[in-house]
Amino acid sequence: MKIGRVAGTVVSTICSPAFERQRLLLCDLLGDDLQPTGEYTIAVDSVYAGAGETVLIIDEGNSARQVTGIPEAPIRAVVVGVIDQIDFAGT
Amino acid sequence: MQLGEVMGTVVATVRTPGLDGVRFLVVQPLDRGRRPRGRAVVAADGLHMAGPGELVYFVASREAALAMPDTFVPVDHAVVGIVDQLVVDGEILTEEIKEEEAP
Predict the structure, then answer these.
(1) Is B71 in the A-facing interface, judged by CB distances under 8 Å?
(2) Residue A78 sits in which domain range?
(3) B14 to chain A, closest Cα gap in Å
(4) Which residue, A76, A88, A87, A81, is CA-closest to A3?
(5) CA distance B1 to B64
(6) Could you give the number of structural domains in chain A?
(7) pLDDT for position B103
(8) Burial of A46 (C-beta count, 10 Å sphere; 0-12/13-18/19+)
(9) Which of A79, B7, B58, B103 has fewest C-beta within 10 Å?
């Protein structure tokens, strides 16, 4: 899984059926210093995450289909958690 | 999923079975600010609607094939949505959708 920060939203009416009524979040991916790495992903929201929140993103198809509950969905990235705290060893 | 801009279409008459009727698009991946990033890819059109100049999002890897009518096909990028509005850091990066004027 990846750590990300919700930076924005993507609105789309013409989309693959699996994306209908899904909320799409544009998330910056964060490094271990919790700063944006410059990479981003568009993920389906499953936890009602808000802008600026640090989130947990799964970027793997089988898990994405399991979380969204749609078999054969062409979805790969899903926001699956809102991160409250991250502890690195010794800090 | 990543943002992309459709640059053009690819025509291939001879193709592997299962890909009949599938449209192929040249898609330039974009960064979060809609700037081109990386090399263009050929993506299958999972919508049968995307055209040149449009802002889309596409899915890569095995999941791309799942956007096709036949899901066991050799496709590694597929356009799965046309972007109507993109908001990043509170800024709207798409043109305002104009309401149709009443006749």
Answers:
(1) yes
(2) 2-82
(3) 26
(4) A81
(5) 10
(6) 1
(7) 61
(8) middle
(9) B103
In a domain, residue A88? The reply is no
Mean pLDDT of all residues belonging to chain A:
93
- For each of chain B's 103 residues, which pLDDT tens digit applies? 999 999 999 999 999 988 998 999 999 999 999 999 999 999 999 999 888 999 999 999 999 999 999 999 999 999 999 999 999 998 898 886 556 665 6
Our measurement of the distance from residue A11's CA atom to the centroid of its chain's CA atoms, rounded to an integer in Å, reads 15
Nearest chain B Cα distance for residue A18, angstroms: 9
Give a yes or no: residue A34 inside a domain.
Answer: yes
Break chain B into its structural domains and give their ranges.
Answer: 2-92
> B87 vs A9: CB contact, 8 Å cut-off?
yes
Residue A61, domain member (yes or no): yes
Decide if B54 touches A, using CB distance below 8 A.
no
User: What ipTM was estimated for this complex?
Assistant: 0.89
